[in-house]
């Protein structure tokens, strides 16, 4: 069984992330990770057990665990095995190390959380599971259900292992939103439906299908989905039911009667999720669907005890931890740090607690998931965030680019229709685009300090987003509704932008919309790249398997060169920043080819990827160093002189799309993936001899050289880029012994 798991030990949000250690020690080191947000589509996407909680992005499950040394929750594991959207997760009530997840490819996986590995797989669920739950009275059985049933029960091990169908729980008249097993009564299970009704099954009792609809819906065809169901921990028969529009009821599952209907302060309020507070009998919390209002209730009152507006966006999931972190002692030997503020201004500071003579707020920590992907841990007693990870992407991140004049900022483009700009020092989002652009495939920063990003979308053409103003200021529609796979802002001529599309055109325009060239290709164009040595030269990658080079200084619409050799479509192309006339291309044939424009030839074929190649990046200091990312989930580092693969990185849990290099720290790079994460990497272990030469004060010829020397076969690594030359020039201006500054500047350069 093929599986991969991805472990982290996140010591602090400001510390570097240490990647998973593998049998073969990787040269490339993971030094940072921007986690995905929580997906907003499915219901059972948040779970908790003891001192752990979990949420799922589109393709990965994130596990957080209480680190008792620091009394804080840390990212413990990223478990990624599903190839399609995860639809539900569930923690085993009998064994905190057992965890189940289901996905849209009709797959259920059982995980061992402690060992971060797959225990068992069921790869044909006969429908997409919309809800998943461990059977409370069966140690090794998990149940799942698709929209109309039936309820399947999978016994994972033992003599009765296999899948059985619940005898009565099938043929429902309305889709199932979710189901919950009773924690004490063996075999009792309740279903919530999209029409607002409940179905209850209990061995030895009459089955009840589609009962207890809200009174206002009786006799109508209107739907009001059940958004939450939770059994009362202090009663064998009572449970809380939330309907999206008709609010919350406490119902008796035996008499099929409503005990209490709870009232909201506003008729506009609607409930998305709820959870009992185990530390405070009779108390529960709810999350509103439209705005991030957390409400605290007691079953003896029909109105909330208190209301907190935690975020502008609505809730998606709630869980109360049964094993929360303890209060920190004032006499702690460790210096305190403020970990309780949001990473963005999107979070609203909790208001002062209103006075309530009859009740006090329960102690406890609530895991909060929001519709915008935000995930946080809220201390209800102290009325503050323990942490809030805000604005993470919830879908594939197709592209990432460092800002040229402020390399602490990294922009990402996603399937979720947004561009986000991250501060890589805090790993937090500082800007996010308005959204609703469809899929954003490609981005390109404006040259210099213009503070704009060009984006290419699946259906809305191209646009320019003013990051500081937070709005789209220009749109390009020359490709119509065709997908725009690549957009590239010329950094030699800031007025020109190139776009490539499924319509077969590469179009060069000015930023004010004046079309300069339309280069027609025989099929879809997936990639383009401006030459870094000639402002009038651009290369393209096409579905017809060819690479083309165009020269803009002529009026001809024909390419100067056509390079053939790939056996499947060409995606991205990249000109070398250090070697004039050298460019590379990545293809669906799994290879990267190096082309020499001056020789009209392919000079190297890099083979090793087992799936289509997407990400491509030349190192801007070492002229032969090339990095590629692939649908085989790996990043490969190549020595293009002889085609050797210097390292293979396996940490991503899905296709690797974007690669970008830090402008002032050339051995720091970022990658983006279908696993919805952005990861930061250090390449410095690959060039250790250079660091030793600097530390031992070897002559400049052993550190900095020209490209011709560096690309000689077997030559040791030499720095050939602008950043290293600038450091050398600044050092040569200094009088006396500049060794201290030399070491400091190169330390920053390599870090």
UniProtKB/TrEMBL annotation:
SMART domains for the chain: WD40
Keyword Repeat: yes
WD repeat locations: 79-121, 390-432, 563-605, 606-648, 649-683
Name of protein: WDR17 protein
Domain of life: Eukaryota
InterPro entries documented for this protein: Quinoprotein_ADH-like_sf, WD40/YVTN_repeat-like_dom_sf, WD40_PAC1, WD40_repeat_CS, WD40_repeat_dom_sf, WD40_rpt
Polar residues: bias regions: 333-346
Keywords from the UniProt entry: Repeat, WD repeat
Residue numbers spanned by region Disordered: 322-355
């Amino acid at each position: 069984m093929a599986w991969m798991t991805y472990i982290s030990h996140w010591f602090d949000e400001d510390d570097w992330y240490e990647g998973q250690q593998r049998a073969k020690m990787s040269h490339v080191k993971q030094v940072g990770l921007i986690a995905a947000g929580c997906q907003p589509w499915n219901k059972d996407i948040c779970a908790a057990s003891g001192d752990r909680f979990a949420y799922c992005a589109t393709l990965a499950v994130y596990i957080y665990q209480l680190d008792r040394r620091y009394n804080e929750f840390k990212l413990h594991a990223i478990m990624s095995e599903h190839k399609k959207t995860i639809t539900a997760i569930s923690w085993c009530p009998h064994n905190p190390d057992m965890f189940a997840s289901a996905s849209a490819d009709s797959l259920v996986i059982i995980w061992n959380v402690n060992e971060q590995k797959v225990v068992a797989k069921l790869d044909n669920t006969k429908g997409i599971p919309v809800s998943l739950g461990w059977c409370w009275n069966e140690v090794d059985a998990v149940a799942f259900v698709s929209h109309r049933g039936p309820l399947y029960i999978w016994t994972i091990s033992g003599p009765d292992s296999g899948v059985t169908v619940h005898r009565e729980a099938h043929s429902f008249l309305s889709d199932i939103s979710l189901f919950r097993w009773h924690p004490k009564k063996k075999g009792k299970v309740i279903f919530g439906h999209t029409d607002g009704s409940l179905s209850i099954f209990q061995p030895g009792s009459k089955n009840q299908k589609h009962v207890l609809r809200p009174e206002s819906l009786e006799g109508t065809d209107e739907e009001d989905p059940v958004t939450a169901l939770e059994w009362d921990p202090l009663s064998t028969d009572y449970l809380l039911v939330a309907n999206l529009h008709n609010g919350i009821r406490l119902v008796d599952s035996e008499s099929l009667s409503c005990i209490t209907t709870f009232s909201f302060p506003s008729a506009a309020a609607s409930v998305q999720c709820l959870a009992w507070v185990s530390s405070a009998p009779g108390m529960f919390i709810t999350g509103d669907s439209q705005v991030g209002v957390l409400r605290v209730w007691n079953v003896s009152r029909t109105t909330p005890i208190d209301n907190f507006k935690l975020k502008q966006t609505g809730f998606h999931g709630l869980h109360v931890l049964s094993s929360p972190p303890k209060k920190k002692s004032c006499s702690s030997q460790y210096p305190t740090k403020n970990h309780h503020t949001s990473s963005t201004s999107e979070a609203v500071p909790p208001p002062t607690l209103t006075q309530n003579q009859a009740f006090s707020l329960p102690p406890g920590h609530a895991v909060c998931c929001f519709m915008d992907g935000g995930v946080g841990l809220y201390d209800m007693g102290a009325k503050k965030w323990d942490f809030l990870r805000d604005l993470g992407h919830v879908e594939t991140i197709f592209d990432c680019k460092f800002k040229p004049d402020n390399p602490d900022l990294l922009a990402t483009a996603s399937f979720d229709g947004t561009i986000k700009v991250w501060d890589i020092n805090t790993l937090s989002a500082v800007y996010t685009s308005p959204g609703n652009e469809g899929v954003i495939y490609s981005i390109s920063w404006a040259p210099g300090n213009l503070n704009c990003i060009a984006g290419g979308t699946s259906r809305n053409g191209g646009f320019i987003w003013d990051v500081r103003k937070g709005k789209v200021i220009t749109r390009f529609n020359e490709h119509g509704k065709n997908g725009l796979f690549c957009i590239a802002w010329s950094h030699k001529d800031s007025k020109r932008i190139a776009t490539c599309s499924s319509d077969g055109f590469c179009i060069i325009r000015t930023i004010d919309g004046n079309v300069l060239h339309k280069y027609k290709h025989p099929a879809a164009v997936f990639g383009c790249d401006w030459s870094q040595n000639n402002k009038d030269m651009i290369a393209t990658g096409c579905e017809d398997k060819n690479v083309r080079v165009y020269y803009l200084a002529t009026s001809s619409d024909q390419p100067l060169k056509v390079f053939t050799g790939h056996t499947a479509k060409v995606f991205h192309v990249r000109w070398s920043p250090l070697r004039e006339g050298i460019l590379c291309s990545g293809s669906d044939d799994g290879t990267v080819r190096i082309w020499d424009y001056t020789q009209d030839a392919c000079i190297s074929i890099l083979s090793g990827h087992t799936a289509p190649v997407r990400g491509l990046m030349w190192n801007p200091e070492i002229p032969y160093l090339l990095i590629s990312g692939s649908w085989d989930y790996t990043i490969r580092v190549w020595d293009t002189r002889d085609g050797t693969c210097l390292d293979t990185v396996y940490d991503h849990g899905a296709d690797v799309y974007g690669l970008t290099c830090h402008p002032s720290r050339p051995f720091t790079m970022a990658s983006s993936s279908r696993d919805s994460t952005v990861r930061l990497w250090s390449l410095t272990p690959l060039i250790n001899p250079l660091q030793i030469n600097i530390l031992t004060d070897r002559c400049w010829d052993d550190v900095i050289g020209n490209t011709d020397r560096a690309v000689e076969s077997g030559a040791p690594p030499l720095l050939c880029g602008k950043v290293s030359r600038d450091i050398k020039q600044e050092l040569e201006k200094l009088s006396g012994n500049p060794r201290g500054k030399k070491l400091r500047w190169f330390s920053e350069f390599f870090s």
